[in-house]
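user: Kindly work through both lines:
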Amino acid sequence: MDVVLAINIVRLFRTPFREPARKGARLVYNPKRIAKHYLSKPGGFAFDLITSLPTHWFFYETPKGTWGYAWRLLRCNRMLRVLDIQDVLYRPLSKTKIDLSVLELVKLSIYTFVTAHWFACYWAYLGQCVPIDPTKEWDTWYVAERNTSWIEKQFLQDATPTRLYIISLYVSFSLIFGGPNDINPSTDSEYMAQVTMLVLGCCFWAYVIGVGVSILSTLYPHLSEHRRIIGMLNYYIHDKSLDADLAARLRTYFSETAATRYFAKNNAELMMSMTSGLRGESSLRSAGALFDNVWYLRPGSRVNADLELEVEFFSKLTLAAQVIIFVRREAISTENLIIVEKGLIARDGIVGLKVVGDDMIINDSDLRHLGKAKAITSLVQTVCVKKDDFFDLMPFFPQARKCIRRAAVMQTRET
């Protein structure tokens, strides 16, 4: 462990750091600046050095019952390393897709085990502080003697460190969570220790309950919203006296689309919070496969092979798009561009169409195929781009405008 901590200090002298947001939030790779930052920041080199020193070596021969023995057993300076857990947990956050609520639960679990570990070490230390008296009268010691440790009372004098730690951990968790505990204190210091651990354990348990419940309540927000919607729906069905078949279809629709309706509404807000560059890049990545279904927007198609469509165009197009869900046998208008994400639709006897309304770029409605499509599966999830929104974007993106004009001319000739 000492070698690992020493290597970690050396590694941090070469680890890039990110500047504050007011300075641009840039990553710094300069070795001199990294070393200066690590030496000067609070919780940096000084903290790591103090918490890494093997101070327990200085008390190796210290007898039981002394403060030196307690320091050696508890590794008091090493305990402070737990304060660094925040940085350890959040350091890889930008590289993972773990939910913050799950991360908070992980952090809460770590804090719980660390607290229990501290209590267990202290309880084991107290049990070893009282010297063993070989002349003790075993018929009366339990009642009369108050200078017998819990270790001697449980006949654990020859227990291995592992077994002693497991038993102490059991006592620790019992005191924190209020569970059953048959390891009773004996000396006054052990009674005081259990009182202290009970008070601290109750406070910590109240904190765990409060934080844990708040985290779990926000872990799946779409389910909370779904429960509210279903409650409103049940009242609506009862108030309007709807028949059982329609009520079942309504409940199926809202149950199957709970996550889609919630996240589709929040995705637009998330996109608007990004910078234009990030919004365009993320839109291009997420909507690339979606708009590839539209032949004249697909990269390398015959109308845009020599063009480079603007990234911002796809960003605006994605923001203008709306998620629309249809149920079976429901008519789907082809007045606007409709791209099917989930489910099956049919038109004119053709099943499994991925796109309808892609001819909206033709100005003459007589040349368009305006026959309505129909959903043939229980639920059909589509993305709709309205014709007006589509053409409102054209003047600002010359490459996209040129591509659309070519496609409109080509479709008109084919018609």
Notes: The radius of gyration is 34 Å. The mean pLDDT is 79. The CA atoms of residues 232 and 386 lie 30 Å apart.
